[in-house]
Design goal:
The chain has 242 residues and is α/β, with parallel strands linked by helices. The chain contains six helices and ten strands.
């Protein structure tokens, strides 16, 4: 079997700061009997293509939990890039710079796996990686389809004189009447992002010239930000992903 060079390797990065404001310590809340972050570490460990799994956190407690479930935590993230307004590109740049400076490790590809989307499978990860490699794309983003009644052509607006119109301000007769007449729309579901390290380090860009979708056709996808979303994840863990 041909050995991979460092430049061919894939780094899975799991960002997990401790300062969540909506749900305290959200990333280590128990879901299905294990910490939330452990779901993502577990699916990454089961991937056939990921070479290293690293958690970027500002918390020693989070780091200890992450190591217990099999991830690396070679550093604690500085407070200056651990706020709720810190762009994710800064988190990735910090990680890649650390690995290059301290370990001379320079992976070509970074796959970002957010712990707040716990139910992506290792199969999803591997399919996304294969799609990315075969497409020659710069970036991959996992997406799910917007339900038809939320799609822009069916969105409505209210005028100042309380008249219901289309989102573009047109008469309601302009609305399409059949779902098949609406072009599908998608939203980022937060489960998988794949980036070129060179775009982040050399161009300071997350998204390259060619960005392809990894489309999830099987609901539900979950992106936990509130207590109710956490409870929904716990329900799914108990009844669907047990």
């Amino acid at each position: 079997m041909k050995m991979k060079s460092v430049a061919d390797k894939i780094l899975a990065l799991i960002p997990a700061r401790s300062g969540s404001k909506t749900v305290k310590d959200k990333n280590i809340k128990t879901v299905g009997g294990i910490p939330l972050i452990a779901w993502t570490i577990r699916s990454a460990k089961e991937s056939r293509h990921i070479d290293r799994i690293l958690v970027s956190t500002d918390s020693g407690k989070y780091a200890s939990i992450s190591r217990r479930f099999g991830a690396e935590t070679p550093f604690l993230r500085p407070g200056r890039i651990s706020g709720d307004k810190t762009p994710v590109i800064e988190v990735i740049r910090h990680c890649l710079t650390y690995l290059a400076d301290e370990e001379n490790y320079r992976p070509a590809i970074v796959i970002l796996l957010q712990p707040t989307s716990p139910f992506r499978s290792s199969g999803d990860i591997d399919r996304a990686i294969r799609l990315y490699k075969n497409s020659k794309a710069d970036t991959l983003v996992s997406v799910s389809e917007v339900p038809a009644h939320f799609n822009r052509p069916w969105q409505l607006s209210v005028t100042r004189d309380n008249n219901l119109t289309t989102a573009r301000g047109e008469n309601l007769n302009k609305l399409p009447t059949r779902k098949q007449d609406i072009r599908p729309a998608y939203y980022r579901d937060g489960e998988i992002y794949i980036f070129k390290s060179s775009d982040i380090l050399n161009k300071n860009k997350l998204y390259g010239a060619k960005v392809i979708p990894f489309i999830h056709n099987d609901a539900p996808t979950v992106n936990i930000d509130t207590q109710s979303e956490l409870e929904y994840a716990r329900y799914l863990a108990e009844h669907r992903f047990k």
